[in-house]
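Notes to self after the Tuesday call (sharing in case useful).
The group wants a holo model before anyone commits to mutagenesis around the pocket. I volunteered. Ligand is adenosine-5'-triphosphate. Logging inputs and output together so the record is complete.
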Amino acid sequence: MLKIDGLTAGYGQATILRDVALTAEAGEITVLMGRNGAGKTTLMKAIMGLVKAEAGRIVLDDTDLAQLPAYKVPGAGVGYVPQGRRLFSELTIAQNIEIGLGAGPKDAKLRRETRDEMLELFPRLGERMSQRAGTLSGGEQQMLATARALCLRPKLLLLDEPTEGLQPSMIEAIRQVMVQMRDKGLAVLLVEQRIDAVLELADRISVIEMGRNAEDFTKAEIAPGEARLRAHLGV
Ligand SMILES: Nc1ncnc2c1ncn2[C@@H]1O[C@H](COP(=O)(O)OP(=O)(O)OP(=O)(O)O)[C@@H](O)[C@H]1O
Ligand SMILES: [Mg+2]
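Result:
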């Protein structure tokens, strides 16, 4: 599905990621972990083409995303929920969803179905379609950002710390959406810092430290490896 190898990337002179490898499979939740500043968000941006790969490959099925301009990456099947949500705060929920749909399927019927699916998945959004995104609660904004990313019917969904700062009921709602998407066969790549939140959820965990691979855990390795995982993260 997604196979990254030898990825080196950064910002101008500042190389952040060095020779990074990462795999995310369809029908699995892959969790990317690492301390603050380890390069998790930079890796997400590199997948999206927002940070240019200096070396390496980012292959999604048969396409090397590293060779595409950023504007073509969503069309290759990648939905992105950035850290901090990044909505169009002056626009309404309905308008934000329209923007998501604009990047998605061209067929009018499929678009209507996609829109209906989003409102089924996130009923709270449906009740507030004309409310401006900037006035939504943090949890509602996260739902809208996720709905917008899902509107393009991605095969790979990237979520960068989606539950940061949310209350438990919202965290649970976001978690359920991730599980549903996994069960629908999407590859879900989640950045999350809280170990307790991922022990049950993750199908595999990749830890990066200072821009390099530290250790990978398969599902079977997660529980026995918990102490090492905590040591990597310093918690
Ligand atoms: N636009 C930028 N220009 C230069 N350096 C940057 C830029 N954005 C991030 N960095 C640096 O890249 C490094 C990795 O940052 P990144 O945001 O990828 O970390 P992170 O693992 O997502 O951290 P956090 O857990 O705090 O979100 C940091 O040292 C950061 O200062
Ligand atoms: Mg980050």
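Two things stood out.
Strands lie at 2-11, 14-24, 28-33, 53-60, 63-64, 78-81, 156-160, 187-191, 204-209, 212-218.
The longest strand covers residues 14-24.
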